[in-house]
Amino acid sequence: MKKRKQRRGDFQGSRINPRHFSRGQIKFYAILVPLAVFMVLPVVMLVSRAFMPLGELFAFPPHIVAHNPTTNNFKSLFALSSTTGVPMLRYLLNSVLVTVLTVLLNLIITILGAYTFAKKNFKGKATLFEINQLALMFVPTAVAISRYLVIVKLHLTDTWLVHVLPLAAMPVGLFLVKQFTDQIPDALIEAAVMDGAKELTIIRKIIIPLIRPALATSIVLTFQQVWMATEASNNYVNNDTMRTLAYYLNSLSTNNTVAAAGMTAAASVLLFLPNLIIFICMQSQVMNTMSHSGIK
Amino acid sequence: MSQGTTKKKKFFTREDGKAYLMLLPYIILFSTFILVPVLIAMALSFTYFDVINAPTFTGLLNYITLFTQDEVFLKYVLPNTFLYALIVGPGGYVISFLLAWMLAQIQPIPRTVLALCIYTPSMLGSVFIGVIWKTIFSGDQSGYINSFLLRLGLIDTPIQFLLTSDYFMLIMIIVSLWSAMGIGFLSMISGILNIDQELYEAAYVDGLRNRFQEIVYITVPSMKPQMFFGAVMAIVNAFNMGWIGVTLSGANPTPNYSGQLITNHIDDYGFLRYEMGYAAAVSVVLLLVVYAFNKVAGRLFGDND
User: Rounded to a whole number, what is the distance in Å from the CA of B8 to chain A's nearest CA?
Assistant: First the structure.
C-alpha cells in the first residue's frame, strides 16, 4: 500500500483521485463549480422563499435571497388546516409514521433477502436473481393501473398498509445490499455454523455489522422514496386524516393564492431538510456501497 | 450451484426450504406489487375493460388501434417520447459519466461537496421539483426567468413558458437532466475511483498518450459493471420521469400535447377515460421499449464480449 502511494508521486500520467491541488485541476473546477451552482441554485431559491415575507415573494425583480427573513410562513403553515379540517401537523406525523414503518420493514426484508441470495445455495436461485435484476428496470408508472386493481382486490385501500407495502420491497436496494454481502468470506459463516450459531444469530452477529454501509444506503434510498411519495395518498386513500405531508404540499402548490406561495415554500423546506440531512450523514457509507454496485 | 457431494440430490431439500422461508417476505411483496401488476397489464392489454363491466377479450385490437388509428399517440406521444428519452437517457448518462470522471480528477473534499450539490436535485421527488420549477418558469414578471429576460430587455412581455407549447419540451428536458444525476452517477464516481492506479501506469508504459485514450482504453473497460448499472438507472429514470410535463403544466394533456409522453398517455386513457384495456396495451409497449433500451446497454457493457 505504502509502496503504491510513493509511486503515485512520481507518476506523471493519470491524476485520478489526487491528494493535492495542481494547476491541471483548474479546468475541471472551471466546469464543475458553475455546474454545481446551477444544480443547487433552484433549491436555494425555494429555501429562501420559505423565509420571505409576502411582499417579497412577488417582488419585481424577484429576490434570490430573502432581504427581510421571517418565519411567518412556517407559523401560518402550522396554524393552517386543510379544507377538510385536518391540521398540518397531522400530515407531518403521518409522513413520519409511514416512513419509519416502511424503512424498518424494508430493512428486515432486504437483509433476509440479500443474505439468502449472497450466501445460500438453493434451487431456482439464479432464476430468481435474474428476475430481480430485470426488475431494476421496472417503471412503476407503467403499471399504475394494474397496481391499483391489485390494491383494490386485496382491500388495502384506506389502510395504513397501502402506504407501506408497495415500497417495502425495493429491487435496487436488495441488489445493492446483495452485491455488498457477496464480499463476506464464506469461512466466517462456516466457522459460526461450527460453533452452533443459528441463522438469525449469524445474521445479527456477523452479517449486519459487516454490511452496515450497504444497509445505510438502502435506508437512504427507501427514505427518499417514501418520504416524497404521493402515489398512495393520491390514489389509494380517500380519508384526509391518512394522507401524508408530500400530498399536502402538492395540494398547497396547486392553490394559486398569494398566502399559499409562502406556505408552499415552507412546506417544501420541511420536506427537503430531512432528506438532505440523512444523505449527508450517510454519504460516505453510500459511496462505499456504490463501489460494489456494478451489474456483471 | 454445483453439488460436489455424491449424495443423491433430493428434489427440494430442507436447505432449499429454509432459503425460501427467508426470501418469502420479499417474494410476496415483489410479486404483489411488481410482478402481478405487470402480468395483469399484459392480460388486460388483450381486452376491452371499462372498470365497471367484466373485461371482454378483443385479441390484438388495442395494439392495432394504437399503431394505426391513435393520432395523438402516433403524432405526438411516440415522437415526443423518443426525443425525450434519447436526450434524458443516453444524454443524461454521458453527462453523468463525464461529471463523475471530472470529479475523480480533483481532491477528495471539494469532490464530496461538489458531488453533493450535483446529486441533490435527484433526491427531491416530484412534488418538490414541480414547486421549484413552476416558480422559476412562472408566466408573470415575478417568475425568475421572465424577470431576468425582461431586465435584459430581451422580451417586452412575460412568456407563458408552462402554458404554451413553444418551449415546453425544452423545459421538460432541462428539468429532467437537472434531476438525473442520481445513484447511477454515484456508482460511476466510485467505479472510477476504484480503478487500480497500476493499470494506468502500465498503459502509459505501453504507449498511452492522453486522457482521452485513458478513458477509452482503461477507465471505461475497467468499470463496465458500474457503467452497466449506471445505464440501467439512466434508462429507468428517463421513463419514470413521465409525470414531469403534467406536473409543470398542471394539466393532462400538456399544452398542445407538446410534452405528452407515453406515461401521460397511459394515465389519460386509464385514469381519465377509464379505458383500462387500451391503457394496459400502452403500458406493455412502454415496458417493451424500456426492456429494449436495457438490452442495448447490456450489449455495450455486459459480459458477452
Answer: 15
Q: Count CA atoms within 13 Å of residue B179 on its CB side.
A: 25
Q: State which residue of chain A sits closest to B293, comparing Cα positions.
A: A137
B125 touches chain A (CB under 8 A): yes
Q: Is residue B8 part of a domain?
A: no
What domain count does chain A have?
Answer: 1
B30, pLDDT greater than 80: yes
Q: Is B185 inside a domain boundary? A: yes
Q: Which residues of A touch B131 (CB under 8 A)?
A: 46, 249, 253, 264-265, 268
The whole-angstrom separation of Cα A200 and Cα A195 is: 14
Instruction: Flag whether pLDDT at B112 surpasses 90.
Output: yes
Chain A nearest-CA distance from B303, in A, is 6
What CA dihedral angle connects B237, B124, B84 and B291, to 10 degrees?
Answer: 10
- CB B73, CB B260: distance < 8 Å: no
pLDDT at B5 over 70: no
The reply to whether A141 touches chain B by the CB within 8 Å rule is yes
Q: Confirm whether A19 is domain-assigned.
A: no
Report whether pLDDT(B13) > 90: no
Question: What CATH number is attached to the domain comprising A117?
Answer: 1.10.3720.10
Q: What is the domain extent for residue A188?
A: 78-290
Give yes or no for residue B238 having a pLDDT over 70: yes
Tell me, yes or no, whether B236 lies in a domain. yes
Q: Is the ipTM of this complex over 0.90?
A: no
- What the block records as the C-alpha cell of A82 is 386543510
In percent, how much of chain A has pLDDT > 90? 58
Which three cell numbers mark A210?
Answer: 459487516
CATH number for the domain harbouring residue B270:
1.10.3720.10
Contact map slice: B 201-240 vs A, CB within 8 A: 201, 203-204, 208, 211, 214, 218, 223-229, 232-233, 235-236, 239-240
Residue B195 counted as domain residue: yes
B292-299, long-range: CB < 8 A, 24+ apart: B293/B85, B293/B89, B293/B235, B294/A137, B294/B231, B294/B232, B294/B235, B297/B228, B297/B231, B297/B232, B297/B235, B298/B228
Q: What is the pTM of this model?
A: 0.88
Give the nearest partner residue to B19 out of A120, A145, A272, using CB atoms: A120
- The domain total for chain B is 1
Q: What's chain A's average pLDDT? A: 88
Task: Specify whether the CB–CB gap between A75 and A224 falls below 8 A.
Answer: no
Q: How far is B158 from chain A (nearest CA, A)?
A: 12
Distance, CA of A169 to CA of A221 (rounded, Å): 12
The whole-number pLDDT of residue B142 equals 80
Tell me: pLDDT of A9 over 50.
no
- Dig out the grid coordinates for A231 from the structure: 402515489
Q: What is the CA A243 to chain-centroid distance, rounded? A: 19
Please indicate whether, in this complex, the C-beta atoms of B118 and A35 are within 8 angstroms of each other: yes
Nearest CA in chain B to A59: B142
- Backbone phi, then psi, for B48, in 5-degree steps? -105, 125
Domain extent at residue B175: 70-301
A4 in a structural domain: no
Residue A171 lies in a domain: yes
Q: Does A194 touch chain B (CB under 8 A)?
A: no
Task: Report the alpha-carbon distance of residue B282 to residue B296 in Å, rounded.
Answer: 21
